Amino acid sequence: MSSSSLQSSSSSHPLVPYGWDTGWEAEFAPYAERGLVPGRVVRVDRGLCDVVTAVGTVRADTEFVVPRDPMKVVCTGDWAAVDPEGGDPRYVRTLLPRRTAFVRSTSSERSEGQILAANVDQAIIAVSLAVELDLARVERFLALAWESGAQPVVVLTKADLVPDPVTLSHLVQDIESAAPGVPVLPVSSLRGEGLDVLSAVVGGGTAVLLGQSGAGKSTLANALLGEDVMDVRATRDVDGKGRHTTTTRNLLPLPGGGALIDTPGLRGVGLWDAGDGVGQVFAEIEELAAECRFHDCAHESEPGCAVRAALDAGELPERRLESYHKLLRENQRIVAKTDARLRAEIRKEWKRRGAQGRAAMEAKRGRLR
């Protein structure tokens, strides 16, 4: 099929509201020749999934795509090749290669990755203004978002609880300091304030909505969707926390174009091989590190450390550097559990630092004698 024919056929395809484009059509071509049907996974539930196709939503079995690798399981947002009508049950035969994937580590000792959403263009990180801002948690969400390949957007929900515009401006600035290069949008779903800007930012693509339980995600989702699709429950006044009103990940088309994946509130946001994402969140530290005298500078007490110099000059907040080190260490531990070579490098570094520490102690003792 020529590129012009492909463009024409994809632009009029019933799945366009769900993100179908010429790229997906080209990827699907070999499966179309086998008589399979394209569709997007809008919900997954215990080995079965709902797949929206050109003729409606079908229930399909995922038996044929149950891999040993948990990173390859069927996920909300996946594009799938499904059996044609007539089969009972109908099966998902394969998944198209993902363009992006939002992944976090599980809490299991095996340290496996868990895919929260696939083929996402924007990651909306909902942060409630009903409670004190946790900048470190925002940085953690941002690291995962950048690593996924999606463009993060921080949405400060419940902005109506901060009526003073000066105070609200300061809160926005606090988040911007932890989110370089990321749009930060205060929104009040109750009053409809800021929704037009957010809709314009996420319109046309696929956005995943992330955040802690009680952050106002379901209310925000309903506001973006223009109807009460998601269940909403009140949060506790004492700490702003709420119960999980969303229990599954659902993909829904937005009225102005694009699609939204709502997710349950996340208690834990563990990194999963997110080194590049951490570097993106702390871009200013990475830029300073390039100017350090030693390429392997740990930014602790080494001579010629540009990062420490910026810290001493008041140009870099201590909190940012501490958060940077914490996320790097956590990510290194996660990667080391599945990377034997990296484990060996970490052990070698520990020994080197241990030897340096012992040498320093011996030198100190010598001076005291």
Describe it for me?
- The protein is of the alpha/beta class and 369 residues long.
- It folds into 3 domains: 3-95, OB fold (Dihydrolipoamide Acetyltransferase, E2P) (Beta Barrel), CATH 2.40.50.140; 118-262, P-loop containing nucleotide triphosphate hydrolases (Rossmann fold, 3-Layer(aba) Sandwich), CATH 3.40.50; 275-368, Probable gtpase engc, domain 3 (Ribonucleotide Reductase Protein R1, domain 1, Orthogonal Bundle).
- Helix content is 36%, strand content 20%.
- It is built from 11 helices and 13 strands.
- A 6-stranded mixed sheet has the order 10-9-8-11-13-12, sandwiched between helices. It has a 5-stranded mixed beta barrel with strand order 1-2-3-5-4. A two-stranded antiparallel ribbon has the order 6-7.
- Strand 8, helix 3 and strand 9 form a beta-alpha-beta unit.
- Helix 3 crosses helix 7 (275-281), helix 7 packs across helix 8 and helix 10 crosses helix 11.
- It is globular and about 85 Å long.
- Residues 2-6 and 233-246 have low confidence and may be disordered.
